[in-house]
Amino acid sequence: MRRTALLASAALLAGLLPWAATARAADEPAPAPVDRFEGEVPFAAQPAESIFTWGGDTDDPPALRLADRADAPEGGKVLAGTYNISGYGGFTHDFAATAPAHDWSDRQGVRFWWEGRNNGRKIAFEIKDGGTNGEASELWTASFTDDFTGWKQIRLPFTDFAYRTDYQPVGGIDHVLGLKEMWGYALTLPAGTKGDFALDDVELYGRADQALRASVGTDAPVRPVAEGATAKVGVTVATTGEAPLTDPVTVTYATGDGTATPGSDYTPVSGTLTFPAGTASGTTRTIAVPTRRDRAAEPAETIPLKLTVTGAKAPAETPQIVIDAHGLPYLDAKLPIRERVADLLGRMSLAEKAGQMTQAERGAVGQGADIAAYGLGSLLSGGGSTPTPNTPAAWAKMIDAFQLRTRATRLQIPLIYGVDAVHGHNNLSGATVMPHNIGIGATRDPRLARETGAVTAAEVRATGIPWDFAPCLCVSRDERWGRSYESFGEDPALVESMETVIQGLQGRANGKDLARGDKVLATAKHFVADGGTAYGSSTTGTYTTDQGVTTVTREQLRDIHLAPYREAVDRGIGTVMPSYSSLDIAGDGKGAVKMHARGDMINGVLKGRMGFDGFVISDWNAIDQLPGDYASHVRTSVEAGVDMMMVPYAYKEFSTALADEVKAGRISERRIDDAVSRILTQKFRLGLFEHPYADTGGAAAIGSPAHRETARRAAAESQVLLKNAGGLLPLKRSEKVYVAGSNADDIGNQTGGWTLTWQGASGNTVPGTTILQGLRKAGGNVTYSKDASAPTDGYDAGVVVVGETPYAEGVGDVGNGHSLSLSAADRAAVDKVCAAMKCAVLIVSGRPQLIGDRLAGIDALVASWLPGTEGDGVADVLYGTRPFTGQLPVTWPRSQDQLPINVGDASYDPQFPYGWGLTTLTPVPKGGTATLRALAARAAVAERRGDDRTGRALVTEARLLVQRKTGGHLTQAVSAPFADADHLLATGRYGEAVGKLAQAYRAA
C-alpha cells in the first residue's frame, strides 16, 4: 500500500520518522496493513467490521475521531481521541463477524505508530484469537509504556503476548495463540487522569521464523517429589498453529543450585534433548532427577532445572523440583491442631507470617509465581473473576495450579482460596443458583436455609474452593440500600433463625466436618451494622447508602446488629469480615469510625466478649479507606484485629509494609503470631495440609436435579402472596393465561446481582428456567407478550412479571441511578393487562417496589424477590402444586417518604406489614376473638414447655385468622401489632405473639 507520508522531504523524515524504525531486511515481506485510519473502517459495531469504544461506566469510553494531520506517519489522517477514565476504558477494532477470520500466523508481530505524551503510563494492546467473532474470542495481551514524545513506531512480537488471566469475554477456546483465526485488536487506555492520544498505521510485520513460532515448556513449573523418589519433568515443544517443527530444537538441561544439596539430597543430572525437524507440536520428552533419602526431618528443598533452548523460545520460568517437607511435627495429622499450629508458627520467619496474612486476587498473580515469592496465604476470585472456560474442571485445575506453587515454599503451607458464593456457587456457569437471602428469609424455614447452604458448600468445594464469603448477617433497615437483598430481613431475630445456613456450609459447630469434601469455611459479614447505614451518609463515589455511617445507641447496636454475630460465633463460624461502613455509637466520643479501624468492636467485642476464635478477613481493598498513609492503614487495621488483608492487587505493598511495621516496633510480634495462628488453625481444620488439591468427587452433582430441586423448593417457599382478591391464585391449568412484563422471561433479572459477575446482567446469562418457561412446563395454556402489545381479548387471567434489573452493593443504592418505582414499561404492561382481565402481578426484585397507586386495579400481588435459576418453583405456587407460605422479611412501604420503616417503629403504617403473607391450599381456621383467646392460652403453655413446633403452629393459625378478617384493608392499628407478633414468634414468645394478633384482629 502506498505510503504518502514517505513522500515528504528528507528533512521532514529525519525529524519525524527515524528511518531505522521502518527499514526492513531484504528478505522480509512487505508489511500487511490492518488499520490505516483513512476512513476505510467505520465507527460502528458488530457484525460489520468496525471501531468502537467501551468502558466501565458511561464516562469511561474515550471519544474518538479521524483527525487530519500533516505529520501523519501514513496517509493523511490518524485516529485521535480524548479520555477521562475512572475505571477502565478503551477501543476495539473488530473484523466483520460475518466474514472469515484473518490469518496472522506467517508474521512476526504487530506494529503501529503512537504519538507519545511522555507520561510514563502503560497502555495494554490486545489481540483476539480464535472463537466465532471478535467478541467471542481469546484475549492475548502485551503492553508498551508511553515514555517518549512525538511519533514512535511500537513493535510487539507475537511471542510477547500472554493469555489474559484476569478477564476473558466468553471463555478460552484452547489457551493457545494460534494466529490463524484473528478477529482484531483492542487498546486499553490509562485510568485516573485525563489524556489524549493519536495512533496510526496498525500493520503486521516480519516473517515468523521457527524461533519465534516454536516454544518449549514444562508440564508444571513446580514438580514436588517425596524424599527418595525420582522426579520426572516433562519437556514439551509446541508451535504456533500446531505445525510440525521445520528445524531441530535442542534443550540442554542441568540441575542447578537451590536449597537442596547435590550428592546428599539428590543426584545431579545434565544432558540434551533433541526434537528433530518434523517433530509434531505437543511432543514431550522426560527428564528424571533421582532424590536421596535420609533420616532427618526437614523443610522442603528446591532443585532448579536449568534449560537452555536452541531453535525455540525457552520457558518463561526455570522449573523447580521440590523435595517435600517431611518428618516435622506440624505435618503429623495425628497431633492436636493446637500443637501443629504452635510447631509451624515457631518455624516461620516474619516474611512468611506476613505472607499468610495477605490475600491477593487470582487475576493479579498471573500464572502464580508470586505465590511462592511472597509466601501468599490466600487467593480469591472477586465477582466475575473466573477461569476460562468457566467449568468445574477449569476451576479445579486453576486452583490446583495455584496450590502447586505453595509446594515451592520452605514450609509448604497451603493456600486457602475464597469466593463470594452468596446464593449458590454463583460465579460458576451451570451451578445451582438459589434465591438471594431476602427470599430465604421470606421462607421462614430454617431447615431449608440449612439445605441451601449444604448445596452451596458441596458445589463450591467440588471445584477446589474451601472458603465462602457468606453468609451476610446484615440486618437491613433501609431498602434504599443496594445490598438489602443480601439480608435475610429487617428483624435480627429472623436473621438469627436463618443462621442454620452456617451448619449447611460448615457442618458441626466444632469444626469437625470442615475437612469433608462437601463443606466449606463460612464467613459472617459485614461486622457490624452495615445494614443500618443512613441514606445520604456514604462518601464512596456516587453511592448514597452503602459504605455510609450507622448511628446507633449501644442498646440498638447490641439488640439489632450484634445479635446475629453472637449466634454465628455460637454456631462456630470460621471467619468474619468487617464492613466498609462507619459506626457512630452515641456517647462514646469517637464519632464515625470505619469498622476496619474499630479495635473496640473487633478485638473487644467480637474476639473478646463473644469469644470468636476464627480469623477476621478484610473486605476488598477496605483498608485503603482509612485515614493516613499506607503504613498507617496497615498498622491501624491489624492492631484493630483484622488478621488477613484482602489486598487484591497490592499484595506486594501490603506484605512489605506489614513486615516493616513489625520491624519498626509499631505492630507487635505477639499480634502477628495471634493472627497467623488463627489462619493456620482454619487451614488445619479444613484438612488442607493433608489434601491441598481439589477433591472433585462431588463435581457431578453441580447443577444436578437433586440440587436444583432444593433451589426450586426455596424459590416456591420464598414467594409472598400479598393480595389475592377473589381467590385468583392458584391458577387453573384449563385457564387461558396472558403473560407479560420485563421479568417474565429473563433469567438474568431473575437471578439478580452476584450472578456470574459482580453486578449480574439481564438476559440469558446462566442455565436455568425462567418464570415463563416454568409456567409452560407446568402445563399452563400460556401466551406471552413482553410489552403486552399482543391482543388481550379472550383470556381468563393475566400474569405480569415486573421489577428490577440486576445490581450489587452501592451501585444499586436508591438515588444512584435506581429507585423503588417500576419502570415506565412495567407500569404500562401492568395497566394494560389489568384493565383487560383479572391479573396477578409478580414483582421480581431485591427489595419492595412502590405499587400502591396501582394496587386497587391488581387482583393478586406476589413478592417474588430474586428466586434464582429455578422458575419452576414460582410456577409451582402459581398453579397450586405447592401452597403460598412465604412471609414478608421486610416491611413493604406505602411511599419512599416512609423510609426507613421497620417492625417496632413508633409510627408504623406500611402498605403491608412485616410478616404479612397470605396462603393458598391451606384452610383458614374459623373463629374470632374467643378463638384467639384460646389460642393465646395454648400458645403460652407451649412456650413454657419449650414446645416450639406447637407454639409456632398456634401463632400461624392466629395470623391466618387476622389476615382473613382484614380483607387486605390494612391500617396502622392493624399493621403495628401484626408485625410485632411476627417478631415475638421469632423470639419464641408464642403467647405474647397471639396476644398481639388478637389486638390486630380487634382493630381490623
TrEMBL record:
GO biological process: cell communication; cellulose catabolic process
Keyword terms: Calcium, Glycosidase, Hydrolase, Repeat, Signal
Residues spanning the signal sequence: 1-25
Domain spans labelled Calx-beta: 203-308
Keyword Cytoplasm: no
Top-level division of the source organism's lineage: Bacteria
Catalytic activity: Hydrolysis of terminal, non-reducing beta-D-glucosyl residues with release of beta-D-glucose
UniProt EC number: 3.2.1.21
GO-annotated molecular function: beta-glucosidase activity; cellulase activity
Database matches in SUPFAM superfamilies: (Trans)glycosidases (SSF51445), Beta-D-glucan exohydrolase, C-terminal domain (SSF52279), CalX-like (SSF141072), Galactose-binding domain-like (SSF49785)
One protein family per Pfam: Glyco_hydro_3_C
UniProt GO cellular component terms: membrane
Family: Belongs to the glycosyl hydrolase 3 family.
PANTHER family in UniProt: LYSOSOMAL BETA GLUCOSIDASE, PERIPLASMIC BETA-GLUCOSIDASE-RELATED
The protein's name in its UniProt record: beta-glucosidase
Native source organism of the sequence: Streptomyces capoamus
